[in-house]
Amino acid sequence: MARREVSVLFFLALLCKAIAIRSQPSTIDASFCLSWRLAVETNNELPWRTVPNKCSQYVEDYLIHGQYERDLELIMEQALDYVNGISIVGDGKDAWILDVDDTCISNIYYYKSKNYGCDPYDPAAFRAWAMRGWCTAVPPILKLFNKLIDNEFKVILLTGRDKEILGQVTIDNLHNQGFIGYERLIMRTNIYKGQSAVTYKSNIRKNLEDEGYRIWGNVGDQWSDLQGYSFGNRTFKLPNPMYFVP
Amino acid sequence: MARREVSVLFFLALLCKAIAIRSQPSTIDASFCLSWRLAVETNNELPWRTVPNKCSQYVEDYLIHGQYERDLELIMEQALDYVNGISIVGDGKDAWILDVDDTCISNIYYYKSKNYGCDPYDPAAFRAWAMRGWCTAVPPILKLFNKLIDNEFKVILLTGRDKEILGQVTIDNLHNQGFIGYERLIMRTNIYKGQSAVTYKSNIRKNLEDEGYRIWGNVGDQWSDLQGYSFGNRTFKLPNPMYFVP
Question: Dihedrals φ, ψ of A196, to 5°?
Fold first, then answer.
């Protein structure tokens, strides 16, 4: 073979190796970030403040390139199966609880500007973002929401967002994203300020039970949506590798 | 370029593509199985009886090729950090609870013969396997175990294994795998037969608390090790994509 062809083959072999490396599933970082994501989602890593810097690209890929959506879809399939198996009492007290941020509507666009959670939490910037009302619906959860409304459940949206500051914009944002027909939107008022999400949300759910509601299901992206007490007959933990709410 | 060289290049291009496909991270099945594993580990998929057939190879790869071990190591790093931050009271009542199967000692070798959980649960075959006493230590958990002993915690092993049938072999198996110096091995006796793991283990832990034990930590591969009541100050969920214990 001529020298020129040998060079071409050598170049091709290099290219080939480069492609193989690029498409390998487990570089050391990807493997670490996958372990980290599992630890976070199973509530083992606790509390955590920021995404490890070396996982910024991993978290972006996860959120943007389909795996996050497939994870949500599989969980919502489970939720829909469960909904289909419930015989409601029908007295207007059959309830589901849904969290708002990164459950019904997404903050991924905002977190992109914060390195997908590698930058520390920035309450002022987050408030400014939420004030715009630009959050987009999370499609698989909107589908569950509509199914619940169709099946005559009372859907109660329960969020740690401050009612005074974010009340109207949250109502508008939910409405313009298709969340229409819910029973109540419960936001944090002054008397709950300073409480952890677990305490605040448990308190609210207990009050709902005292009003006679049966909480059939409870959906949130944070374990603090689903722990404490009165957390409902079944809980669904959605993935969120961007931030942790205690 | 001569026809022969063109053929060589064409063959190389094909080979190159084949390598790239083989090492691609996300075929449809791998992506589904990753979603399924997340759903299982976050207790969203519930209850589940067998691993989906199309995930048999995925689960084998996960368990055998390093990711499972890295997942365990990261969780145990968290646990060790937590241990190092505890000031024990030192009255002999500072306790940790560890599950046995697929927490301290591994059944992966057995589950290999059951298609890594794709085949249905087979109580007789599992009992025959356990009777051999061939389970191997799970290294990151043995490391935690030894650290707990060194730090003068009382380590209590709590398992759903039947005491009458598997008592002696379990003691021997734990011993030959290096689990030496624990406070108690609590196994299921007749009065707990028929109870779910959540009920049985909660009962036992409550009894331990009534004896004065403070449960600082609780480690298990099943959510039923960590839920119910008296579950301890902090829980650590280890991965197990092979089977589900209600």
Answer: -65, 160
